[in-house]
Structures are given as structure tokens and as C-alpha cells.
């Protein structure tokens, strides 16, 4: 009987530990949200990227662009070789298939929409949840380039606002003319 209680106590302790670990993992910040992509050469914001989780993998989409003078008005990814070929850069999936491991995300790819090249990507979220180090590389992370992106909050003026949805059904127009006399 005592052995039964010991086994039950061990099982309960194991369940408690698993719950605590899962809770700690779930409470860690994620990359979900909108980030400013900052050009390391000049410090200017090049665009805004929105991250979301899809089937356990993370994707980042271009939601706003800040073109330089002389850049095309509505660029497309003519060099892409997958489903993004000739798609508008605005709204394009920039990062795909990144798998989360705590504050790190790897195993995915990042796209250079200027020429369609894809690179392995490693994302590292800061513990304060405000900066994201994005490293694109070929082969080993040693052979790559990093950028530091800044998180935008929903109160920032640059935060992309959802577009108003057009009404699917137009409401009937109300007649504001004077009432017609009742005939009796």
C-alpha cells in the first residue's frame, strides 16, 4: 500500500513539473506582431513585417513598404521561383517555416524579394520582447548577415490599421421625404 502511494506521489509530481514547464514556455514572448525592418546600412525603416504562427511554424509577411526614390511603385517578385513568382511584394511571405524553440526560431527561410533568392534564417527574440535579430545565411550561420528589427505596438502611428471592409449588402435607402397624406 505504501508503494502505491509513493508511485502516485511521483506521478503527481511529474504531472506538476510538466505543467510548470509548459506554463513557463507558454508565457515566454513570441514574435507574433508587427516589426520594423531596419536597414543596417542607413538605419532607415525599409518595411513592416507581420508574424503569425501557422501549423506550428512561423511566417512573416510584408505589410507595409517604405520605397526609396526611384524604386518601382508596385514591385513584384519576378525572381521568385515558387508560389510567390510575379506576386506583389506588398503582402508577400518573406519568412516561412521557422520553428520556435524558446526565444529562438530556425529551420526556415527568408526571401530577398529584389531577386528571389532564398536563405536559411535564424530569428532571435530579445528577452524584453522588443528587438528581433534576423540572420539570413547560406550553409552555416557564420556565412550570413544580421539585422535588428524593432517591435511596433498597436499604439504606434506606423502600426498598420486594418482596411475597412466593403459592405457585402447595401442597406435599403431610407425615404426622408415628407409623409404622404392619408386618404380616407
Topology, please?
Elements: H1 2-27, E1 33-38, E2 45-54, E3 57-65, E4 93-101, E5 104-112, E6 117-125, E7 131-137, E8 144-152
Antiparallel strand pairs: 1-2, 1-8, 2-3, 3-4, 4-5, 5-6, 6-7, 7-8
Mean pLDDT: 82
- Classified by CATH, the class of the largest domain is Mainly Beta
* CATH topology label of the largest domain: Lipocalin
Count of alpha/pi helices? 1
Counted up, domains total: 2
What radius of gyration results from the CA coordinates?
A: 25 Å
Describe the structure.
It is built from 1 helix and 8 strands. The chain has an 8-stranded antiparallel beta barrel with strand order 1-2-3-4-5-6-7-8. A hairpin with a 4-residue loop joins strand 5 (104-112) and strand 6 (117-125). It is mainly beta and 184 residues long. The protein folds into 2 domains: 1-29; 31-152, Lipocalin (Beta Barrel). The termini are far apart. The model is unreliable at 12-25 and 164-182 (pLDDT under 50). The protein has one helix spanning 2-27; strands spanning 33-38, 45-54, 57-65, 93-101, 104-112, 117-125, 131-137, 144-152.
Key traits:
184 residues, mainly beta, Lipocalin, 14% helix, 37% strand, globular, disordered C terminus
In short:
It contains 1 helix and 8 strands. The chain is mainly beta. It folds into 2 domains: 1-29; 31-152, Lipocalin (Beta Barrel).
Amino acid at each position: 500500500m505504501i508503494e502505491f502511494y509513493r508511485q502516485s506521489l511521483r506521478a503527481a509530481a511529474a504531472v506538476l513539473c510538466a505543467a510548470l514547464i509548459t506554463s513557463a514556455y507558454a508565457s515566454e514572448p513570441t514574435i507574433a506582431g508587427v516589426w520594423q525592418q531596419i536597414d543596417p546600412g542607413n538605419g532607415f525603416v525599409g518595411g513592416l513585417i507581420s508574424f503569425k504562427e501557422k501549423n506550428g511554424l512561423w511566417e512573416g509577411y510584408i505589410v507595409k513598404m517604405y520605397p526609396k526614390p526611384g524604386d518601382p511603385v508596385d514591385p513584384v517578385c519576378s525572381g521568385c521561383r515558387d508560389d510567390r513568382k510575379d506576386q506583389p511584394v506588398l503582402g508577400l511571405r518573406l519568412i516561412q517555416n521557422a520553428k520556435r524553440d524558446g526565444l529562438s526560431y530556425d529551420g526556415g527561410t527568408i526571401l530577398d524579394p529584389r531577386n528571389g533568392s532564398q536563405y536559411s534564417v535564424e530569428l532571435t527574440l530579445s528577452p524584453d520582447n522588443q528587438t528581433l535579430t534576423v540572420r539570413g545565411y547560406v550553409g552555416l550561420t557564420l556565412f550570413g548577415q544580421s539585422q535588428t528589427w524593432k517591435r511596433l505596438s498597436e499604439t504606434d502611428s506606423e502600426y498598420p490599421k486594418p482596411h475597412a471592409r466593403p459592405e457585402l449588402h447595401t442597406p435599403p435607402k431610407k425615404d426622408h421625404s415628407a409623409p404622404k397624406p392619408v386618404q380616407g
